[in-house]
Amino acid sequence: MMKMFFSLLACVCVTAWCVEPSVNAAAPASGVVASQPLSGFPSDAERNEERVRLTRERQALEDKYRQEMKLCYQNFDVNSCRLQARDRRIEADTALRKQELRFNAQERQIHADEARRSLADRNSEASQKKAQAERAASIAASKERADANAQKQIDHALQGTKRGDYEQKQREAVQRRADAEKKLRERNKEPAAPLPVPGQ
Q1: If we measure between CA atoms, which residue out of 35, 55, 65 comes closest to residue 104?
Q2: Smallest Cα–Cα separation from 17: which of 86, 73, 67?
Q3: Using one digit for the tens of pLDDT, what is the confidence trace for 61-94?
Q4: Within a domain: residue 27?
Q5: I want to staple 85 with a disulfide (CB 3.0 to 4.6 A). Which of 53, 68, 147, 184 is the partner?
Q6: What are the tens digits of pLDDT across the range 2-27?
Q7: Number of C-alpha atoms within 13 angstroms, CB side, residue 58?
Q8: CA 55 to CA 50: how far, in whole Å?
């Protein structure tokens, strides 16, 4: 009977000693996470430390439970000891699970903010490229309009010259027709006297 009492007392002391540091360590961490505003997230190093701490606590909880189960099998009242160990594990697991859920929610929020920021950056880059392309297109269009306008003015200025060329050609054509008619009239004249035969 005494042996069972001492083993039970040892089990309770070991359990209390193992649970107490994890509860004390969990309290400040949960306060830190809860007190942080959504806009001011912890740095990557702090988040990695928190992730490692939660993993270590989870591993310590499982190791402690396995140790308690080994101790329970050395006791006379195995079932009662196992139930108590299971209850302690459930309590510690619940507290640790709350911390993990809080941490995971914070991680999701950080990733969502990063995704939104990345999307905004891409959209701003795309809108800048689009605006730049529109500016280049409008500059090219205005240059084409200016070139077309300049060509139109040149054509208009040359139109008088071309008209002068046209009128000059018309006058030359009239002159050629007059010359051709004159030659035709000259042909209708009597033929000239034949040349004398040589030697006669």
Answers
A1: 55
A2: 67
A3: 999 999 999 988 888 888 899 999 999 999 999 9
A4: yes
A5: 68
A6: 455 555 555 545 455 554 444 444 44
A7: 10
A8: 9
